[in-house]
Amino acid sequence: MKKLYIYSVLFGASLGYSSLYLFHFFVPFVAFLLGFGLYKNDYKINKDLSLLCLFYFLILFSYFFSDYHNFYINYIFYTFLSLLVLISLYFLTLKNYNLVLRIFIFFSFLQLFFGLMESFGILRLPFSPYSSYAHYFGKSNDYIDDWSLDIMDYNLSKPTGFSGNPNTFGFVALLFAPLLCFYPNKKIYRILFSISFLVLFYKIDSKSLFFTYIFGFILYYFLFEKIKVVLYLIPLFLLLPIVSFLNFDFDSNVRVFSVFDEMSKGFNLLFSDSNNSDMDTSTGFRSYLYSTGIKSFIETNGIGLGIGGIESYLNQIFGQHTAFHNFFLQLLVDLGVLGFLIFMLFYLKLIYRLWKGSFTVFEDLNHISKILTVIIICGIFSSIAPSGIFYCLPFWAMLGFALGVTHLKKNQGIS
Questions:
Q1: Residues of 256-293 as b/e, b for ≥16 C-beta within 10 angstroms?
Q2: What is the pTM (predicted TM-score) of this model?
Q3: Which of 100, 106, 247, 397 has a beta carbon 3.0–4.6 Å from 13's, enabling a disulfide?
């Protein structure tokens, strides 16, 4: 029974089939019901779980101070399931840390493998919206016929993996990538996995994901191996004048190479009165979404629009469901200052405890704490890539695993 519990939870929570909605219902409830039956004597309320409960009650209560209820039930449902996954993974980690870690590493490899297979046209998972079998899973992809050949070649070269969307898949892959890039003992494996993920994020062609992936390496070595940062930065600074002298021009069709230009453009548009003048581009459109959300938040005097409020408001503007594409900003806009501070207190405490726990004499927990520190910090930046992560089970599973690691060390008197 315990094996069924462990594998069902980790399989569904790690891969997070967004295209098979049954998993969003099945996995968390199986996790919680079986987990409560198996480990009911081990459930202890701590401050971190109390913060999450307070966070969820605020989400429920936000109905009463909101004028936008289109997506309220959706968000209540998804948030409830996500928190069940987080809590279940937390207790699982306390019970069997090594098994959780091994399965997470295995799923990271699966994501990398299938992502590369899809990127190079070798195979496509059947439930992908770009698959010819998608209609068997309730997905219609007739819209592909309306694409031009160039757009079709561009989009079909992107992997969708187990998530049904290139950006959501990339976000999930980035959550698990550091487990393969930093954890293996042999350096050759770490190098091969690092290069493979670099190719994968290049093929996904998301500026935020590509930038965050590079940032993750800099962050890891800066926090924990500063000497290597210096060794890596020296050749980089030596190459810059050479590139400038040769006037080397990156392929303008590859968006990841324009990341810094797009970031500068996005900030300018965000604080511009005419930020809706460039909505044909991804950067311009998201800047419009963010500025609209900030203005709406200010109009509520910091109380917020209520859970799902900004998406309901955007639905009225555009006449269709429009994702906000920024989880942390959406917390502020929807749940106001109070909701944002509650969640960020939980999140920042988690980062601090992971970082603090990485300086111990227990080598394996020390190592995984370093990796999880990078994963949780990078989650702030990469969260703008997918349409949203309230319903992204792997994100909450990783938070549960990280929370379990911190309390595992605390219970053992390590930190």
A1: bbebeebeebbeebbeeeebeebeeeebbbbbbbbbbb
A2: 0.82
A3: 397
